[in-house]
Structure formats: C-alpha cells, structure tokens
Amino acid sequence: MPSERTEVQVRPGAEGDLEALTEIYNHYVRETSITFDTVVFTPEERRPWLLSHPEDGPYRLMVATSADSQEILGYATSSPYRAKPAYATSVETTVYVAPDAGRRGTGTLLYKALFEALAGEDLHRAYAGIAQPNEASTRLHERFGFRYVGTYHEVGRKFGRYWDVAWYERPL
Question: Which residue intervals of 36-124 are DSSP H helices?
Fold first, then answer.
C-alpha cells in the first residue's frame, strides 16, 4: 500500500533502470507543471540523458528502490547548469518521486545520497528551479540548505497557462 513505510535503498542509476525512470518522468510530463517538457519520451529517447549521468563525476543519477521488491521509487540528478565552460563548477539538481511513493522520505534519502556523492567533486554551487506552486519541493530544498534567490515570472507555458519558476541555490 502506498501509505505503508517501505525500506528504501539508494544506489547509482544503471541502464537497466531506463524504462522505470522514463515512466516516472513521463507522469510529470503528462500530469504536472513540475517539468516544462510537454511531450512524453520513449525509453530510447531518454537513453542519452541516462548515459550523461555516469557513476562518478559531477553529473550523477541516484535511484531509490524498495528494499524488498527493488521497485524504483524515484531518482535525483545533478546535471550541467549551463553549457559554457565557466559554469563547470555549478550543477542543477532535481528529484522525481514515483506518484505512489511520495511522502515517505524518498526525496530526502535521494538528495542525501546525491550530495554525499558530490562531496568530493570540484563543484561550487548547486541550483534548483522549482515550478510554482510546489510546497513539497520548496521544503525539501530548504531542508538541504538551498536558499531562495529569485523568481522567473511566467517563464514557461504548459496546460494553457504560464508558470513561474523560483530559483534556489546552495553551496557545495
């Protein structure tokens, strides 16, 4: 049952996770304004994204699984903040939790593992853009030391309306 506590394990993402990770992401594409993608992906279309997050280096993919069933409950990533070389010590971080796995601390476990993995990397700042409103994501980021730095107003259009994105940063 979704409300039951399940022991969660967090590990680096692997190619075998691609289908489940794509399913989770596509839920947010179809049903929410949390991502500004508007068309769902096939696993094959998401493969380059997965492969851009190796097990080491500044761009990581951490996956949360149920300890008993190994069902994927969510994932967290660090990705390039911008493409220009001077941004190399900055990353953008994000967390996506399966729709039936929320409110169990999965996002917290994912971010804890992600930031531990990034601790030895040559990184200076992490940034997170949170489409508004999203109180749960705001609370998660603030718990991990992110602070609000500003809002891009009406920066994305989805579902026939414009959405704001609040930006947060944290030192690494």
Answer: 43-51, 106-118
